[in-house]
Structure formats: structure tokens, C-alpha cells
Amino acid sequence: MDLSAIFSPVIAIGGMGLLFGVGLGIAAKKFAVPTDERVEAVKEFLPGANCGGCGLAGCEAMAKSIVTGESNINACPVCNEAQIEAIAKIMGIAASASEKQIAVVSCKGNHVHAQLKYNYQGIANCMDAHLIGGGPKVCAYGCLGYGSCQKACTFGAITMEEGLPIIHPEKCVGCGACKNACPRHIIEILPMSTTYHVNCISKDKGKEVKAACEVGCIGCGICVKQCEEGAITLVDNHAVIEMTKCVSCGKCEAKCPTKAISNLSEQVLKQENNAIAASSSSVVI
To answer: DSSP state, 235?
Structure first.
């Protein structure tokens, strides 16, 4: 047996592999893109949830964006003050205070208040329900109530009650995942200091709104007349509150005939107190 006929190809292929390997190694070093060590350092203090609330692909992309200066050090809506301070230290800049953001559901049309045009028996998903004739609710703007926002929330900040999502502010980080999951766009991300809020986004005329929901904004303009600060205007048959002018007098809420306006700060406080009470009752003495 001629062993050279066997080993010669093996040696040749091995030599070519070695040559290519060396070449690739040299090319990798020559064309290597320098990485900033701060990216990994910043990433360590990001939550790692990859929720997309910052508008980027994930926490690594967020870290790179902060290091390159494209994003502020507090651009991640999930980070707490301690994490922001740590990132600021890495970047060598002063940490600026940022107000906590929370998700707000702009709809009160639950199973009791909202009318249905048919009984939906499909997949329990808001987008699927929305695609079938615009959803089972008469109101074309209201919450569909199948919990897509709850499923999208990785922080357990949303529960469903009577066909409406309830936001738990003590858990909500304002990441926006629920907002992105809602096909009706009824979830907003607002500063926690927001006081009075219109819990309806319907642009239908008053008669149509009343036929669809008991608690929708009918565009009657009573709130506009009650507001002495000029903080409320009617836009497309819908009341809009400008918080920079609002003095939280409460006159709009008191006079709203359908109770479409509510005090968001009171709702937040109520939810926080409920959470504290639930936590206290679970303690075994």
C-alpha cells in the first residue's frame, strides 16, 4: 500500500487549513473594530429584561447607545435611581433625576359599561379579536379586554378585571411593552405626577358614544366650561387636558356627566394602598 497516496492529501488539506487559519487570525486583528469597555460596564447595570421600552432592540443596544452619547443615561425606563447613578459614574457625568413613568389605560368600558355587537369566541388575543369586524365591542376605540397587554408585561404589573387591564403602579416601570401590544392604542405612558386624565379616546359624536358605552367621553364641553385655567379643549369630539395648565382643582371631574374624567393620582394611591394591604395580610405572625 502506498501510504504517500493517503497522507499527501491529508497533509495538503491540513496545511491549507493552517494557512487559512493564520490568515483569518491576522485579518481579524487588522480589521477588528475596537470595543469600548464601558459598554459591558453599563450593560451590567441595565435590567436585562430586553423589554424594548427604550425603543431599541435590547439592553446591549441600550448600553452602546448610552456610551456613544446617542441616548441619555436615564433612557432606560426600567432603571431605578441607583442604577442610573451607577451608569452616570461609569460615564463620568452627573446623574439627573427622572420622574417615574407608568402605564395608564384610557378606557373604562368594561363588561358592565360597554355594549357588544357580537359574541367573540375566537383566540383570546386582542389583535385577533380586532381583526374580526373591528372587535366585538360597539365602540371602535375601546379596550378589547383579551389581555394582550397583560401577556406583554414581564413585570407582572397588569391584571385583568371585568375585561379591563388594571395597572399596578408599584410594579409598573413604564417600559411601554403593554402600549406596543395594544391594537387599539388605548394605553399611554405618563408621568406619575399626572393628576386628571380623560379615560376615553373615542372620537365619535356624543350620541354614538352613549349608545356604545356608559362611561365614554361624549364631547359635551362641560369640562371645558368648568376649567377656569383653560387647560381643557375639545379635539375631534374628545376632551384633552393640558397638564402644564391644570391646577388639579377637580371641577372637571365633578361635573363630567359620564365620569370619563378621573383623578389618576388617586387611582395610583388606591392601587399602592391595596398592594400594601395585600402584602401585610400575607405576613404570617
So the answer is: S
Would you report the helix, strand and coil content of the chain in percent, each value rounded to 5?
40, 10, 50
CB-CB neighbours of 220 under 10 Å: 18
Question: Residue 129 carries which side chain, given as an amino acid letter?
Answer: A
d(CA 68, CA 64): 6
pLDDT digits (tens, 9 = 90+) for 213-235: 999 999 999 999 999 999 999 99
Q: In angstroms, rounded to a whole number, what is the distance separating the alpha carbons of residues 268 and 197? A: 12
Greatest CA separation for the chain: 105
Q: How far apart are CA 136 and CA 119, in angstroms?
A: 6
Instruction: Note the pTM of the prediction, 2 decimals.
Output: 0.72
Interacting residues of 218 by C-beta distance below 8 A, sequence separation 6+? 206, 209, 210, 237, 257, 258, 260
Give the pLDDT score at 48. Answer: 87
